[in-house]
Design goal:
By secondary structure, this protein is mostly beta strands. It has no helices and eleven strands. Helices cover 0% and strands 48% of the residues.
């Protein structure tokens, strides 16, 4: 059974930084496409970063967020810098059974999801 467990969310002031982690069990990172999504209050879930042999970022986070993997720890990370109030939301990690997906920032491409972690950025 695949389980993804996020951690690292919290409350920060604008321009601050946070690093989210997503530890996996029953799933090995590095072989397939993985991603981070977020959902702001009242909004749809949006893909913000994805990784297979390439990385993909939404325009809203490119240059500020970095997705990475630690294979030894079997953990996915999202380093978030220069945070803005509009980055507030619940952040989810996601994993696919496939190495390549047609649209890496589309939620329907993913088979497994974490439970989410709250990120709140105050101005």
């Amino acid at each position: 059974q695949v389980q993804l467990l996020e951690s690292g969310g919290g409350s920060v002031h604008a321009n601050g930084s946070l690093t989210l982690s997503c530890a996996a069990s029953g799933y090995t990172y590095g072989s397939n496409t993985v991603a981070w999504f977020r959902q702001a209050p009242g909004a749809e879930r949006e893909g913000i970063a994805a990784s297979n042999r390439f990385t993909f970022y939404a325009d809203s986070v490119r240059g500020r967020f970095t997705i990475s993997l630690d294979s030894a720890k079997n953990t996915l990370y999202l380093q978030m810098n220069s945070l803005k109030p509009e980055d507030t939301g619940i952040y989810y990690c996601a994993a696919s059974e496939r190495l390549w997906v047609a649209r890496p920032l589309l939620s329907s491409e993913y088979d497994y999801w974490g439970q989410g972690t709250q990120v709140t950025v105050s101005s």
